[in-house]
Amino acid sequence: MAQHADPNKAYVWLTGEAYRGAPNAEMPADPFAETLTGWKPYGGIEAGFEVTSEQSVNKLKVFNYRQAAYKVTRDPVDNGVKFRAVDNTEAAVLTRLQGGKITKKGNLYIATQGIGEEFSFLMTLDDGDDKMAMYYPLVTLSAPATRANIDGQTLDSYEFTLTALKPPQEVMVSLPEGMNIP
Length: 182
What we know:
Layout: E1 15-21, E2 40-41, E3 45-54, E4 57-60, E5 71-74, E6 78-85, H1 90-97, E7 101-105, E8 108-112, E9 119-126, E10 131-141, E11 146-147, E12 158-164, E13 169-172
Antiparallel strand pairs: 1-2, 1-9, 3-6, 4-5, 6-12, 7-8, 9-10, 10-12, 10-13, 11-12
């Protein structure tokens, strides 16, 4: 039987929010507040968030050293997050525009997609007892937003795949028992 396993130390994030801010926007002092000044909420998020992280590791070998890799080099870490926004909010429209613009023509609004832009991203997570957040000071879309099937059975939504241009910061409300930070 496990001596150190404790389900009270595990999380199942049941709900969360996503926000869009200006490029390099300061992380809010309380990212879990009901209203975040300067941040635009995405609204409904379908099926949560997929946080991604990749890094190529190159194991260099030489002919006359056989015990292990001779040197190891690492590419920069490529962090990101993927999510599907279902509400037609200001944050969702601005993100899918990719730096483009909206013009008014008569009584209609015409959206013209740009080629890319940078902004800040904040996601908060809650399991009913605990909370955490991920703050991305600077992100960009990895590819144009993908629209869901328009089939009369699927929520109209856009999938956003973001690439971090600066390292993300994990926001913890508390530290694990016994862990002290000076």
